[in-house]
Specification:
24 helices, binds adenosine-5'-triphosphate, P-loop_NTPase, ATP-binding, ABCG_dom, nucleotide-binding
Length: about 625
């Protein structure tokens, strides 16, 4: 094994520069989750351990033993409730610095859809490697990585068409681009066949041999796979039961009087021992290895934490502080915007569906209100037409966001956690990316209903009419983002439409009645309905200063003087520009709030954490009450 490893080491996988060694130690790590009135649940119980660079370490254990939890805490993905010490090369971990050098490949392969493997790799390279590396060099790095991961023949395949194993390898490839010294992988072999499993593990071993610290959690590996790990760390019920070289585990257990049957998979045996199938051996194993403070090396148990090295600290810090691989926010914005546009364009069926729906609704609504715009007997219907426009531009942009953004957040979480880009760049790209389609489809719909309903063909009315509808549309989309930044798909789909009800109610409340009789509280609420400003502005823009004719056959025709109609509707004191400014303020506020909530969801501050605790507390109390 060692000769093989030396060979790999000499070749230095991927020809990437050697990274300084990163050693991860953890001592007395405890993780508790609150469980309402029942107190709390202890998931990790004061465990310790040490993971070295150049080694492939497997975290093993029965289901529910705490493998993913340990990985999450070590990677810094979830560590708020954890107590204990985590040291990086002998120094307390600075999470911000550590996240610069460590990458976490989560169990779910969240890979951006509608891109080929090559494109996904190039976009990731552009985001992670910065401009100082030429496109040719980036292509060379990508080629090397794809070759190493046996993905060369899938370069033109779309990511959503890849097999499970290929997706897993692509997830690893994407994170290898900037040569991270530390790699965490949560169950990288789940769902793979035996051959793919051993290929995946031998790849990880090569990466570790190149000087990286590679740590993965794994479910019941085969005997062959088990022997491939440089180190296995076994957890059972949140405690460490073995730490050392895999093939030495069985001899070690026999020293404790636990004998493995002949021709038995040692990994299965350890799992069974940990699950209590050979009697209650857990306490014996935990105390023999001192809950991870000891390690079994070459026939003896040795203490782990006697000497710590801090010599590498400086080197790591240099990587962290260097601008290597850093892109400006503007560059990140451009790359992300292009990615979003490419994905949008490639989602042809969805685009087509949207176009068809806008045309159908345009035809339907246009026909419902045909000819009303210049008919003095239909002024009240025209009033209703403006309300329809407002409702259209409230629901149509908001619903797709409520449906798609919760999944998008999962991609964002992975990419942002692995330092691909800042949330600000992402949010700006997201804001700009939807504008063209929204404008084009909105214009298509508006042109149809405008012409069908015989609205005045005057440029000074057409432009503000379109602008007000677009503003309403962008605010509604922002509300969608605001809701789905905080809630999951199910809750968001319920809360979104329900939350719009008061906006709709207050948008038309009190027209024709005059403000004097309206209670002050209702008046305040009316001021908070952005739809009211849209509706009012549309009415003023389209009706003010116009006089209509009555058709001869029509007997009931009283609203021909539209200024008079505006007065009857109690809108004569309203000013269009005030409405438009109010809409712009709404837009800025709601967008900023959705950005804030999104940022808090990914990197919460103390206030937000306190709110989350309160929310969780209320939730557990409520679920107990049932
Ligand atoms: N937020 C939480 N609230 C309550 N229990 C939790 C929470 N997070 C984890 N647990 C529990 O902690 C235990 C360890 O979970 P973890 O996901 O780390 O296990 P695992 O070893 O990775 O399991 P598997 O191999 O099945 O994925 C489980 O019993 C799980 O139910």
């Amino acid at each position: 094994m060692d000769e093989n490893l030396e060979e790999i080491r000499k070749n230095n996988v991927l020809n990437l520069p050697q990274r300084p060694a990163v050693e991860i130690e953890f001592q007395d790590l405890t993780y508790t989750v609150p469980q309402g009135r029942k107190g709390s649940k202890l998931i990790l119980r004061s465990i310790s351990g040490k993971f070295r660079s150049g080694q492939l370490t497997a975290i093993l254990g029965p289901s529910g033993s705490g493998k993913s939890t340990l990985l999450n805490i070590l990677a810094g993905y979830k560590c708020r409730e954890a107590t204990g010490t985590i040291l990086i090369n002998g120094e307390p971990r600075n999470l911000k610095e550590f996240r610069e050098i460590a990458r976490y490949i989560m169990q779910e392969d969240l890979i951006q859809p509608l891109l080929s493997v090559d494109e996904a790799m190039m976009i990731a390279a552009n985001l992670k490697l910065g401009k100082h590396i030429s496109v040719e060099d980036k292509s060379k790095i990508i080629l090397d990585i794809l070759e190493l991961l046996r993905l060369s023949n899938t370069r033109n395949t779309h990511t959503n068409k890849l097999s499970g194993g290929e997706r897993k390898r692509l997830s690893i490839a994407l994170e290898l681009l900037n040569n991270p010294p530390v790699l965490f992988l949560d169950e990288p072999t789940t769902g793979l066949d035996d051959l793919s499993c051993s290929q995946c593990v031998s790849l990880l071993k090569q990466l570790a041999a190149g000087g990286r610290t590679v740590i993965c959690s794994i479910h019941t590996p085969s005997a062959k796979l088990f022997s491939m790990f440089d180190k296995v760390y076994v957890i059972s019920s949140g405690q460490c039961t073995y730490q050392g070289y895999g093939p030495e585990a069985v001899p070690y257990l026999s020293t404790l009087g636990i004998t493995c049957p002949t021709h038995y998979n040692p990994a299965d045996f350890i799992m069974e021992v940990c699950s209590g199938e050979y009697g209650d051996c857990q306490d014996k194993m935990v105390s023999a290895i001192d809950n991870g403070r000891n390690e079994f090396i070459k026939d003896s148990v040795v203490p782990l934490f006697e000497s710590t090295s801090s010599s590498q600290k400086m080197e790591i810090f240099e990587i962290v502080s260097s601008k290597e691989g850093k892109n400006s926010s503007w560059d990140q914005f451009k790359i992300l915007l292009m990615r979003m546009w490419v994905q949008m364009w490639r989602n042809k069926s969805y685009l087509l569906l949207k176009v068809v729906l806008h045309i159908i609704l345009g035809l339907l609504i246009g026909n419902l209100y045909i000819g009303i715009g210049e008919d003095g007997s239909k002024t009240i219907f025209n009033f209703g037409f403006f309300f329809t426009c407002v409702i259209f531009f409230m629901y149509i942009p908001m619903m797709p966001v409520l449906l798609s953004f919760p999944l998008e957040i999962q991609y964002l979480k992975r990419e942002h956690f692995n330092q691909w880009y800042s949330i600000g760049s992402y949010f700006c790209a997201l804001t700009v990316s939807t504008l063209p389609v929204q404008m084009i489809l909105g214009s298509l719909y508006l042109s149809m209903v405008y012409i069908f309903s015989y609205q005045p063909l005057e440029i000074e009315r057409i432009v503000p009419f379109f602008a007000i509808c677009f503003l309403t549309s962008i605010i509604s989309e922002s509300f969608g983002l605001l809701i789905s930044s905080t809630l999951n798909l199910l809750n968001g789909m319920f809360v979104g439409p329900v939350m719009m009800v008061p906006f709709i109610v207050f948008s038309a409340y009190g027209f024709g009645e005059g403000y004097a009789s309206i209670p002050i509280l209702i008046k305040i609420m009316m001021r908070f309905s952005y739809l009211r400003y849209s509706f009012e502005a549309l009415v003023l823009v389209m009706l003010r200063g116009r006089k209509l004719q009555c058709p001869e056959e029509e007997e009931f025709c009283i609203f021909t003087d539209l200024d008079e109609f505006i007065e009857i509707m109690a809108m004569n004191n309203s000013v269009i520009w005030v409405d438009i400014v109010a809409l712009i303020i709404f837009l800025v506020l709601v967008r900023s709030a959705s950005f804030y909530l999104l940022r808090q969801r990914l990197t919460p501050n103390k206030t937000f954490m306190a709110l989350q605790y309160i929310g969780r507390f209320i939730k557990t109390r409520m679920s107990e009450g049932r």
